[in-house]
Amino acid sequence: MKNIFIKGLIGIIFSIGLLSIAASAKTKNSLTIESLTVPNDAQIYAENIASEMVSNVSLNPSFYGVDAADFSEWMLGNPYTIFSADNNIVNNNDVYYFPILDGDEIKVILSVYKVNGEWSATISKDNSDELNELAQLNDNNVYMLYTSEGKLYAENKNHKKIIEEVKIEIANKNSTSDIEEFINKS
Known about the structure:
alpha+beta
């Protein structure tokens, strides 16, 4: 039942012709992610904050999991969204992802979202390696990214890949010390 729902979801999204956003990756093949339209004010905020965020990465590249590079060459790529497909409900989580590119390679991802009505952003390596790998596949490279049951999927008509699996550690509910240890570890 879940597979039928996901396939139906993909068909609906492709058929209604959502805005297709291209994010180039390592090879001559490009990676295109089906996405909702990103609000203009989110785009403007990302353009204004990107250089400051990249500057933070350049001050401590190993913290962000990137190699030292000529950060002045990094540029803001086209944004995309990730859908949520849990509980047979499809929605966008109102986070807009902007790949930061060094040439054709996605280095880090700038995530833009609202907190208390104001735009905010974070930058991380996130799933940049996985997106670069998808760009190298010759399988129609038009993907939809969605979360379902704690996993992030990239899927198109020919290929489905789990990009990230969220692992949640659960403490033994019968033991107060286990719960305290779990909380202190977090």
